[in-house]
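Continuing the batch. This is chain 6 of the set; chains 1 through 5 are on the previous pages. Same settings as before, nothing changed between runs. Recording input and output for traceability.
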Amino acid sequence: MEIFVTNDDGVLARGLRVLAEVAAEFGRVTVVAPEVERSGVSHAITLSEPLRLREVGPGLGLERTDIQWYALSGTPADCVFIGLHHVLGRKPDLVLSGVNRGPNLGYDVLYSGTVGGAMEGVIQGVPAVAFSLVCTGAYPFDAMRPHLRAVLAEVAARGLPEQTLLNVNLPSPDLAPFRGFKVTRIGRRYYSNDIVVRTDPRGGEYLWIGGTRVTMEDDPESDCGAVKAGWVSLTPLAPDVMAGDALAGLRRFEALAPVEAPARAGRIRAL
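Output for chain 6:
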């Protein structure tokens, strides 16, 4: 298999290295990841500034010379786009993203750069899986290797539905005893609306956004509840964000009477 790997925690993140090493058991691996952390950038694409790509290797602690490593001055979605169309120059068999340092549960999927990178793979016509590690203490990425291997083996053997991203959240042992794998729906997970106001050394005000308190549901059929109970949660996502159930109720707009355009204003004199 030809496997492409990215993340949003940066090219030197431990979770990325573990995922790339497990993926290398299934085929040839190329990594293109942001040169710095780009968490929370969702599916952002860089259009207003140039991108710089550089190959990295053992000098930065990336010991596996059988894996190609690149750092890009862009977002995870940039990494996938540049990786597929410039570095590889062809579609791989699989795009992987992660392993993220922290959960991507519930509405996190709308903000997550990890999910955004994997979703770009789906948009480019490649099956994709995003991995995140849910933890309350130190992040035991190496302990997740068997779970990663099990998911990748199943994907390699039987594939994924067309135009589908698999969002996988792995519970660490300190969260709950491992119970197995569970296919789930997106749960409801909310952050508190915290805005921290501070003053810089020059007396200017600046703001930090980031909720410190999290509320999420316990339903084991949701990704939130499943992970809390010790299940590896596997949630199918798709780039089609169409609210199909709302179509019928919105047909009423088709009966609106046309509105006449306002008369054109007179020519504005030059000052």
